[in-house]
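Worked problem 6 (solution included).
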Amino acid sequence: MRKLRWGVLGVAKIATAKVIPAMQACEYAEIAAIASRDRARAESAARELSIPKAYGSYEALLADREIDVIYNPLPNHLHVPWSIRAADAGKHVLCEKPIGMSVRETRELIAARDHTGVTIGEAFMVQVHPQWERAVELVRGGRIGVLRAMIGRFGYFNPNPENIRNIPEYGGGGLMDIGCYPIKTSRMIFGEEPRRVSGVMYRDPALGTDTLTSAVLEYPSGQCIFTCSTQIVPNQGVQILGTKARIDFEIPFNAVPGRVSKIRIDDGSDITGANIQTEEFAPCDQYTLQGDRFSRAVLDQTPPPVPLEDSLRNMAVIEAIVRASKSDRWEETAI
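Solution. The predicted structure is:
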């Protein structure tokens, strides 16, 4: 089976430091080109990462007939516009999370996908990590009894007003950047959509973005609660709670490449944790897995790991949490 040729829009750190190096180990994908609005930056990245082609504009990359797939790691407000332009150029697209700025934008992207016939997916790499696939399997198989709750936390400290994560117009803020992870993973674990949500947000008066957000998601089968923050001690954690046991993740979202990943299953029979069972997963890179899984979906003409319909539902939850933080009441997530 041939390798698909990928082009990268921009020289964002997530692309140059994480995704591109990981995808260079892919079986079904190769990074063939990179573009920047600053040609010198594109050429520098291409040299450092051994990428064959460098372009001084996004348009030039999209015009390259040898490129099959576009990876879009641009700031959030550019996700949908440039993904649509890539689709119109006949390119398949893997777009970073969150898929866009709103439900409305996501619908526009779905329309572009349907019109052009290309494959478009959202880059939630956790979808394909073995530890999350195993957690879903354990929950579905009844290992923890009846699923009742999930608790999540995710945060880092970044007060830089020039950082794109702290600029409202660019789609910055904790909920969009990292709160989307507990939303996505709780939907994976429950296998359902939350019926309604409540939420509180603290918005930094100088930045205008939410720097501390907490939410409750009410599912038909239980509840998820989570907190995310862009101005807190770096942290991440997930607990999945059932009637017979719980699952704890060592590093749920940013699993370290080349390091064994672990989940722990505790039946609660010993408060000191003496009866905890640990499952380990061989070292892997979830960005490599993501690149190959998306490429196989394109080659096999099957749905990508995170199709846009899933992205639409995740964005609907994000919007509902924002509404709840303003209305001070429960908000429905229906789309």
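Discussion: The first helix runs from residue 13 to 23.
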